[in-house]
Write a sequence for this structure.
DNA sequence: GTCTATACCCGGATAGAC
DNA sequence: GTCTATCCGGGTATAGAC
């Protein structure tokens, strides 16, 4: 016997997979309903809109992300510590980060109901990594290190079937740190 | 007096900018027409469809990319040489690479009229970087290095107003190579 | 080459029965 | 909770005058 909360969770799971694979705009309500085995109308009993499904998926990861950002000004973490955290955030979002990063049409849809835009948060991380008064080279290194974290973590998740292996995690962190540090370790 | 070839070029320029900023699906024909200063119908005198505009933009970069791929099996370039080439390809595509990488809905539209999918080409580059029988760590490093090239090159283009500065180029290449090489340089 | 007008379709969303 | 039926808007694309 299926409960509403149950169905809600299934919708979120299905949507996460489809959004990650085909993008948000590339996934239609009827795609989701099809996977779910119902009609589109049934979906609207559980969620008021397509954007709300996405919001439901992103709420928790973005909150975690936000806490990290808030902490930046207080604890002034090292590059190692911050990149390490970013690996975990990326892994924890199950490929949902891609949706925000990649589909420019998505941001306006959820931006309003969030304290910070993801662009602002990304900026904050870059700024923290690059330090005050960064050189162009320093900025490029920070951007590069974060790109390594995002891409390699996603690939590692795929390779390991959804969970991040400790040795992969260590490898990614080391690689990102090498990007940050021009001198040999 | 405006010629057709002229207008065609303007359409391509405008579309390149809009596609890069708002994505392909996020850009409507009337967005382009608006920038152009005409109606949507006028656009269809120059291009038979929206997908053809994209194809017009991607044809040359993808051909150049394809030549690099074809050459991989012959010249077995070093990581340095290959990553260096990838920087130039990324810069030469004026942010158009993003469109392919980021919008999953785009591929089906142009895939048919191309010899190779961009996914296949990306695979080939990764394989060439990682070498035969790569370890998981080796794969992650290759993926990371390529991610650095793509992201940092885009940022460098923005910072420098559209052209890639030699010192930025050198910085990006060095960073990507550090990702590839676990030992100190 | 560009216009006005319009056809067509698809995706998101709603109404109301069951 | 899920259905059938339907609406509505926006986006692509076409017809035909100028």
């Amino acid at each position: 016997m299926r409960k509403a909360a149950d169905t809600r969770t299934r919708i979120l799971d299905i949507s996460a997979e489809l959004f990650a694979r085909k993008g948000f705009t590339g996934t239609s309500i009827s795609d989701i309903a099809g996977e779910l085995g119902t009609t589109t109308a049934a979906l609207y009993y559980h969620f008021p809109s397509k954007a709300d499904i996405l919001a439901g998926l992103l709420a928790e990861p973005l909150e975690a992300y936000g806490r990290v950002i808030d902490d930046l000004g207080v604890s002034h973490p090292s590059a190692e510590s911050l990149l390490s955290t970013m690996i975990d955030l990326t892994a924890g979002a199950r490929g949902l980060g891609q949706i925000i990063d990649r589909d420019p049409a998505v941001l306006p849809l959820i931006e309003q109901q969030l304290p910070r835009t993801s662009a602002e948060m990304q900026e904050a991380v870059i700024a923290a990594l690059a330090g005050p008064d960064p050189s162009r080279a320093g900025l490029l290194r920070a951007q590069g290190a974060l790109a390594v974290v995002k891409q390699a973590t996603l690939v590692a998740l795929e390779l390991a079937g959804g969970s991040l292996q400790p040795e992969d995690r260590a490898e990614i962190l080391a690689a990102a740190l090498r990007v940050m540090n021009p001198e040999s370790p």
